[in-house]
UniProtKB/TrEMBL annotation:
Residues 38-192 form the CobW/HypB/UreG nucleotide-binding domain. Pfam families: cobW. It comes from Nematostella vectensis (Starlet sea anemone). This is CobW/HypB/UreG nucleotide-binding domain-containing protein. GO terms for molecular function: GTP binding; GTPase activity; nickel cation binding; urease activator activity.
Length: 203
């Protein structure tokens, strides 16, 4: 597959699925005054990213000072879902319309997301900001300059081959969430696969 065609940004060239033990380590920072600690949540379309963000907000909002930034290509669909379900006060949640490949907005050119994080930090001084990426493939991954901690969500509906395929989304994440395990029998997925791949990556 040739990545030389022009569409506004470049792609990393990968020669293997990667290993969790060889992932990029978080950048250690001591000053969070300008930019709060960030948790990046990524994963394919429909894997359950927004549902996870909603659940985290509902669980943490009474005990933690948190904010959210969502990403969609041409809409504010995920932001609107979180607002409708009262995840947080609307002012604490921002929407980024990437206008192109979702992975570019969290890695190659993350300026829009970084600006929203900095504005939220200045206004609310949150303990951390959750950044939800737009749905993308297994090659999508956050820049460590944008996300201090990375969660990647996959779902069982994709079959048990997904964890074996690897890719930066899986192997560069700090935590891999396997969602919709109740559908394993329906799609013929073997949940035991999660225990023997990528040196303990699958949790």
């Amino acid at each position: 597959h040739d990545h030389s065609h022009e569409h506004g940004h470049t792609h990393e060239v990968m020669t293997s699925p990667g290993l969790w033990t060889s992932r990029d380590k978080p950048i250690h920072r001591a000053d969070f005054a300008e930019r709060a600690f960030t948790v990046g949540i990524g994963g394919p379309v429909g894997s359950g990213k927004t549902a996870l963000v909603l659940a985290l907000c509902k669980y943490l909002r009474d005990s933690c000072n948190i904010c959210v930034v969502t990403n969609d290509i041409f809409t504010k669909e995920d932001w609107e879902f979180l607002v409708k379900n009262k995840a947080l006060d609307e002012k604490r949640m921002r929407a980024v319309e990437t206008g192109g490949c979702p992975h570019a907005a969290i890695r190659e050119d993350f300026s829009l997301n970084m600006e929203e994080v900095k504005q939220l930090t200045k206004q609310f001084h949150p303990e951390f900001v959750i950044i939800e990426s737009g749905g993308d493939n297994l090659a999508a991954n956050y820049s460590r300059e944008l996300a201090d901690y990375i969660i990647y969500v996959i779902d069982v509906a994709g079959g048990d081959k997904v964890p074996r395929k690897g890719g930066p989304g899986i192997t560069q994440s700090d935590l891999l969430v396997i969602n919709k395990t109740d559908l394993a029998d329906a799609v013929g997925a073997d949940l035991k696969v999660k225990y023997n791949t990528h040196q303990g990556l699958i949790l």
